[in-house]
Specification:
Blueprint (H helix, E strand, L loop, with lengths): L2 E2 L7 E2 L2 H35 L2 E2 L6 E2 L2 H12 L3 E3 L6 E3 H7 L2 H5 L10 H7 L5 E2 L6 E2 L2 H11 L9 E2 L10 E2 L6 H5 L4
Antiparallel strand pairs: 1-2, 3-4, 5-6, 7-8, 9-10
InterPro entries: Znf_C2H2_type
Protein name: C2H2-type domain-containing protein
Organism: Cacopsylla melanoneura
């Protein structure tokens, strides 16, 4: 007796084990396709939400910039001001408040003014510098980690401090002087 796949309706065979195997594969493919569609739908929804513009005087929202400008002129009789660095539109009274260029759009490490989120992701600023050894660090976290090691006074004893990186591979020696015990144990 010939059986056909009830999922794709394209495959048929007389061997029951073949049809079962085929149907399992069809179910997997269907599940993967549904997951892809779901992710694409969520991504599209997120993109649309990011594009929503809101009136600063009322709860009016739109994804169309021209509609927002027209709304503000007609309903609030206000001139619309556009921020040079982002997509915000404001009225004259709130534009002064919106002048957040120095707060939101200016990099505190360099003279960059613009899309600060993108700038910070793509730029590696050396924001912290150790006064003792002159090394520079891209973040406060790494700077503080360094200070814990660098600020320790040298000692006559051999101090072994282990620092483990993300791959659990680094062994670091600080205030290290040759030590016969370490040589005997083949630590270095």
């Amino acid at each position: 007796m010939k059986s056909s796949c009830h999922i794709c309706k394209k495959y048929s065979t007389t061997d029951v084990s073949h049809i079962r195997r085929h149907q399992l594969n069809c179910m997997k493919k269907k599940s993967i396709q549904e997951e892809k569609k779901k992710k694409q739908s969520e991504k599209k929804k997120n993109i649309q939400e990011e594009k929503i513009k809101m009136c600063c005087s009322c709860s009016f929202t739109t994804i169309n910039k021209k509609q927002l400008i027209k709304h503000m002129k007609v309903n609030h009789n206000k001139k619309v001001y556009k921020c040079d660095f982002c997509t915000s539109y404001k009225s004259s009274d709130s534009y002064n408040h919106h002048r957040h260029v120095s707060l939101c759009h200016k990099c505190k490490y360099c003279n960059f003014i613009g899309d600060l989120n993108s700038h910070m992701k793509n730029t590696n600023h050396t924001s912290k510098k150790c006064e003792k050894c002159e090394k520079k660090f891209p973040s406060t976290y790494y700077f503080n980690q360094h200070l814990n090691i660098c600020k320790q006074p040298p000692s006559n004893q051999c101090e072994v401090i282990t620092a483990i990186n993300k791959n659990f591979k680094i062994l670091r020696f600080t205030n290290f002087k040759e030590c016969e015990d370490l040589k005997k144990n083949n630590v270095y």
